[in-house]
TrEMBL record:
Function comment: Thiol-specific peroxidase that catalyzes the reduction of hydrogen peroxide and organic hydroperoxides to water and alcohols, respectively. Plays a role in cell protection against oxidative stress by detoxifying peroxides and as sensor of hydrogen peroxide-mediated signaling events.
Source species of the chain: Microbispora bryophytorum
Active site per the UniProt annotation: 46
Entry protein name: thioredoxin-dependent peroxiredoxin
PANTHER family: AHPC_TSA FAMILY PROTEIN, THIOREDOXIN-DEPENDENT PEROXIDE REDUCTASE
């Protein structure tokens, strides 16, 4: 697994959203995109992180950002997650983990002291030209959005 670095081209993708619509990274060219990968919809940490993005979406949108959440969950589960927690940004399904792997967001990680293969909670900021502006791996669910908005100069 290779990790992306600032300046790298963001791997393009087309994934299915919670409503079974196709969403491509390419369609957001000209805008800054916050792309975050999370392990599983409706788990406590992932819910906290998604709700933090939801609660900060106004400030992010005002600054020209688009937020996209990606997990290995199927669209039906993403729909349930969106509705349960009133999430107002696209949740994308990557059941085959191809996009996770392209971004280095799937691989070996330590979980409760054991090395396992799994989703690495990661966030990327993609600039308007499709280049990686920020690549943050192994982020914490709690406090991550506050840290990210601070780093991006949004508060």
């Amino acid at each position: 697994m290779s990790k992306l670095q600032p300046g790298d081209a963001a791997p393009d993708f087309t994934l299915t959203d919670a409503d079974d619509n196709e969403v491509s990274l390419e369609s957001f060219r000209g805008r800054r995109v916050i792309l975050y990968f999370y392990p599983a919809a409706m788990t406590p940490g992932c819910t906290k992180q998604a709700c933090d993005f939801r609660d900060n979406l106004g400030a992010l949108t005002e600054q020209g950002f688009v937020v996209l959440g990606v997990s290995k969950d199927k669209p039906a589960k993403l729909r349930q997650f969106r509705e349960r927690d009133a999430l107002t940004f696209p949740l994308l399904s990557d059941t085959g983990l191809d996009v996770h792997k392209a971004y280095g967001a799937y691989g070996e990680k330590t979980n409760y002291g054991k090395t396992v293969m799994g989703v690495i909670r990661s966030t990327f900021v993609v600039d308007p030209d499709g280049k990686i502006e920020k690549a943050l791996y192994n982020v914490k669910a709690t406090g991550h959005v506050a840290r990210l908005t601070k780093e991006l100069g949004i508060s």
